[in-house]
Amino acid sequence: MKESLGVYDYWAYDQRPKIEWPGGAKVAFWVAPNIEYYELDPPMNPQRNPWPHPHPSVPGYSIRDYGNRVGHQRQMALLDKYGIRGSISLSVALCEHHPEIIQMCRERDWEFFSHGIYNTRYTYGLSEAQERAMIRDSMETIHRHTGQACAGYLAPALSHSERTLDLFAEVGEELFGDKGGLYTCDLFHDDQPTPVSVRSGKRFISMPYSLEMNDTIVYAVNKVEPRQYATMLKRHFDRLYAEGAESGTVMCIPTHNYQVSCPHRIKAFEEALEYITGHPDVWVATGREIADYYLANSYDAALDSMAAQAATAGKQG
Amino acid sequence: MALNDDYLEYPLRRHGYDHERYAWSMLSERAPVIWPEGKTLAVWVNISLQFYPLNQRGKPFKVPNGMTMPYPDLRHFSLRDYGNRVGIYRVLKALAANNITPTFAINAQLAEQTPYLVQRLKEHGGEFIAHGWNMDHLHYGGQPIEEEAELVKRSVDTLRRVTGQPVRGWLSPAKHQSFNTPDLLAENGIEYCADWVNDDMPYPCDTKTGSLTMVPLATEIEDQFVMSQNLHSEDAWVTQVKDAFDFLLEESREQGGRLFALNLHPWLVGQPHRIACLEEVLAHISGHPEVWQAPAGEILDAFHQATEQA
To answer: For residues A52 and A42, what is the distance between their CA atoms, to the nearest angstrom?
Structure first.
């Protein structure tokens, strides 16, 4: 085990080259619906139990199923209403289980990125070859069902190994060259995209995805009231919008159809979407669009700045 | 050491579900259902009446709201008992004031031991549904099927005997099941089950033994879920229930029939400082021209009638 993962160096927020988003936008805003499949009777993993009770864990399974049976279309209708194309964090087995959902998202030109095979199969305990095979399966499945070269990764159930980012970047390169394996959502260290070093040397970044704004963390872990979530989202946006006047920021709302689309919560979510998209200098985008733009326009300057800051720190040290 | 390669095998990765209990179907893709008299929103209020034994075994887990302290945990035992002695009578008044006919999901052991309570519930009017034996007799994966079969039969038979009602519905303690539970319910003449919270309408469930319909009793707006699990305030609970009701009412106008199901626990919401919040909630969900308030058995019948006609 390592003390730090070591894929990025310290790089201060207030000393960076300016990020300029298209149209002079202050915030690049994206919504990442997690469309997940949890198995009713998954195999056990030695390091993490998929369910808190003996299988079948009906309470947990059935509310997640609610997300797919009921919630998805509610959230999709809202995103349509506010002109937002979702960037789906996908349990790719959903392509087989519920292709009807995939089809609806394809019709809207939404982005699909990999969130593993099932949210009940963890990275813990996989060998490098096994993890590579799992990631490859996930990217190939997305390509087979949607034609998309998968650009992003959020490890299933946020279960990682030390190699996760390296493997995703490598498999993306093998399958799709510079069109695939571009960004990770697994790091929560910044409000802007940042270069992340992977062992192949691929141009690869961390995309701000925000655990703090993630509805499952907010509702199920932090037990926040629905209307307070709307307040949090608006405050989060307000500050990133203000700071974005100096250098572009990224705001993501990661959602789950079994959380945000419940009848007692969806109005609060809509309030936040209406508020955010009602501002003029917001670039409503997908994860890939932000990654592509950043890689083309800001990545090299970021590397230079990081190197310069490290050198300065070295002199002072 | 790495995991076995079968950890990356997925034999049930296929269209539909990884089980065969019910068919995959998205709510908004189904033919719209209209409730009796042209109503769009069916409102079901369930009152859960529960016995939490002092000598809790906690097998295979301790239920939420059960005993947490070393034996004898008198604080939780008596706080739960409060609901059946005091809280329920406040709740009944609030229901009557709004002309609500509820279901009473009652642990069979409690029904057997409190004939006076059962009599008062019958006088109030409502449908009894089975709620297992007590809150420490769970249905769970790995439970020997003979043991669960006896538990289901004893619970259903006892409740039928002491209430004189047919007892058509079932709510598992803690909404927890084994893989066999739906089969055992149908075998005992149970027609609907409230445990699976995956829809805002009833839907059919496959069993080996007979027909069963899932009628989801929402967890997310339950009094105990919001106030006891999430630790939100009473006022926040009122807001959430109203918001849920308002949203489903609006959706039912646009898309066809929906079910609004509210589960209540007299040991929680029957407290003096909470009962006014319940009154506010019940007033809010009553009296709308598009609302049809009925106990779940009647909602089930109307659902069958509407879907057979369609």
So the answer is: 12
